[in-house]
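Q: I'm writing up a methods section and want to include an example of the input and output format. Could you take the sequence below and give the corresponding predicted structure tokens, formatted cleanly so I can copy it straight into the document?
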Amino acid sequence: MKIPLALVTLERIRRGELDGAQVIEVPPGRITTPGPTGVSRFRHPARIAVEDLIYLSTCISDNSAADALFALTPPDRVGAVLRESGLRGIAVRHTMRELMETPVERFDPADVHLAHALAIDAGTPGRGHRVPQLDISRANTGTARAFVDLLQALWRPGATEPSTVHPGVAAQVRGFMANNLVRTRLAPDFDSDASTWSSKTGMLLNLRHEAGVVEHTDGQAYAIAV
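A: Here is the clean output for your methods example:
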């Protein structure tokens, strides 16, 4: 959800609804939103500009930074702006804090594998799930096709209907994705002297996702969502 969040935040800055230089006080992650990186690991409050929160959220996947942005643009508003931009198939329903409140929090570190076993085995025939964050009727969701469509709108703004992503906003999101620091999944397969890889990863319990674009020096570009 951090790519849509970045896109919508930058679009609202472009419209004049938000100020990218506005400084927000972000509580430390141990109080608000847990996570492995950035402000989520801070022990004290930090004052950070909106555009820098986008960097932290997108490039290092900082959950606390993302929730500071969600406080400015709630999930339902993010979804509404996506639809206004002609982008379908991505449902933004909750914040990162709600995403992280999974059964894994109830297990001791030595027993985390039990939470993963629950995530893998607890599906229901109705496509629900005992873990709310994995229930597609309630969770943040997006198909691989929807994310490829989003990437196409970012890399080829205005080239395909009905997407109407502003070229300046698209360029900014591409810049953040090019500086993604999590490069252990697909990046080794697509990054080379003759190509560049821009992406965003996602992880929850047993799920490992990545969506990105490989651009070759001959001008060809391919979007990939796994």
